[in-house]
Design brief:
The chain is α+β, with helices and mostly antiparallel strands. The chain has 3 helices and 4 strands.
Amino acid sequence: MSTRTFRVTVRGVFHGLGAGQRAALPADAAAHDVLRAAFTPEGHLSYDIAARSAFTFRFLDTGEEEEDILEAAGRAEAAARLWLTERGYGYRNLRSTAEDLSQAPPGKRQRREAARRHV
């Protein structure tokens, strides 16, 4: 049995932030810049609070079965909730999407490498 890799994206909107929280988010924005976004096991948060109050967490998880993707999405949502709650950030509209990379179509680079091997 092979290990499957899942990419889980959890999105939401900051809600009911106090003045201190509104000041803290831009101060820490460099660590959460969307240009540095990556899927990681511990989760990576990105946002641009100056543009809008939305945020995105990106998680990397694994499983053995195709059905494990549902548990991975649940763990990711729970981790996002915990991170937000521990810091006192209000949020709403939390939702997740998950992708099984073993089911993803090959990218341009993968197609090009496969074509080279068959020539």
